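Lay summary. Proteins are chains of building blocks that fold into shapes, and those shapes determine what they do. In this project we predict the shape from the chain. Here is one chain we studied, written as its sequence of building blocks.
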Amino acid sequence: MSVAFRRESDEEHLEPSFEIPIPPGPNLVTARGLRLTREKVEALEAIPTGDMGEEEAKKLKRELRYWRARLATAQVQPAAQGDAVAFGTRVAYRLGRQDKTVAIVGDDEADPAEGRIAFSAPLARAMMEAEKGESVDFGGKAGAIKVLKIEVVREE
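And here is the predicted shape, written in a compact code that computers can read:
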């Protein structure tokens, strides 16, 4: 049989497992985001690995490396002033005919279902530095978003 058709082991043909991708740019966090990251690291470190299978342990270690890196690079941002859209503000806005509210937070703290979007999200970037009553361009449309209200996000 030709060497080309022979496999030494099945492991040669497994999909490689990559590190969890770290979002590009600075790791800006709110005080809440820093607390949540610390809690995540502590929770992962507390998981016993003795009875785990090799793949499960590798997955846990990979996740722990991600969260440790995020904790090490976290940059807590000072509280926003609230007079303009910025990191750490909650913004009520109108897009189309719908009024919505979002808090602008760090990448790891973002959860759109809970009304938290990352500062790096296109919507957040479009509204940055806008003031109450101002309209900003979004999605290729001039004045698509109208900022209705801005308030500072308090620790939750």
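What the prediction tells us: The first helix runs from residue 31 to 45.
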